[in-house]
Write a structure and sequence with these properties.
Blueprint (H helix, E strand, L loop, with lengths): L1 H18 L7 H13 L1 H16 L8 H29 L9 H25 L1 H8 L2 H21 L5 H20 L1 H28 L7
Helix pairs in contact: 1-5, 1-6, 2-5, 3-4, 4-5, 4-8, 5-6, 5-7, 7-8, 7-9, 8-9
Length: about 220
């Protein structure tokens, strides 16, 4: 039961994004990227632990809310979104099958939710069904939406000569903001987190609509 509760929300999210693609990507390719995203959890986790240990050992290291901000933006958000972005660049960005703007959202979401599934399983198996319920409406949608933003920026970089750095930096900032609210806890922080997630839904909805309407473009 716990395994199903941990995995199902991410699979539903991936299915929705995949179904919205007017010209479907090969399912095996999407699954491959999903599993590559899942594999990213191990190196990301090890790097985050090293950074946290180093930070904790620093004399006069900030504590409290400032420490949470540093963890959110400069450790968790940066490391995790960088890992996903590297997978996208290495296995998708220069490939011939990446030939439509909306493709980037499918691929990036697959990578992001692969990461989210493993992370979710670890949390749920240690904390129980209540955690699965909460994360199904917070962390999983969060990773999905970070993937949408990452994909839209990679699409802009490939087809519109946009700056690729945005595909890394913007998801890092969005993820860091999410973690800052989540780590702060308390009624106010939880209310802000809910409001932030609602804003993200609107923000990413328009990105999906925009990219679905675009036809295949010449690669710049």
């Amino acid at each position: 039961m716990l395994w199903i509760a941990a995995i199902l929300p991410a699979l539903i999210g991936l299915w929705i994004v995949y179904r919205l693609d007017r010209r479907k990507e090969p399912p095996m390719l999407v699954l491959k990227l999903f599993f590559l995203g899942a594999l990213t959890v191990l190196p990301a986790g090890l790097l985050e632990k090293m950074m946290l240990d180093g930070y904790s050992a620093t004399p006069d290291a900030p504590v409290g809310y400032l420490a949470s901000l540093i963890t959110a933006f400069f450790i968790a958000g940066t490391v995790e979104e960088a890992g996903k972005g590297i997978v996208f660049y290495r296995f998708v960005y220069k490939k011939a099958f990446f030939d439509e703007p909306y493709d980037a959202i499918v691929y990036a979401v697959a990578i992001s939710l692969g990461f989210a599934v493993v992370e979710n399983v670890l949390y749920v198996m240690s904390s129980g069904l209540a955690t699965a319920f909460v994360r199904a409406f917070t962390a999983i949608p969060g990773h999905l939406m970070f993937g949408i933003v990452m994909g839209s920026e990679f699409s802009r970089a490939r087809f519109e000569q946009g700056k690729m750095a945005r595909a890394f930096v913007i998801p890092m900032l969005l993820h860091g903001t999410y973690d800052a609210f989540a780590l702060a806890q308390g009624f106010v922080a939880n209310a802000l987190l809910i409001a932030y997630l609602m804003w993200l839904v609107r923000f990413t909805y328009f990105k999906i609509v925009s990219l679905r309407q675009q036809t295949p473009l010449p690669i710049g």
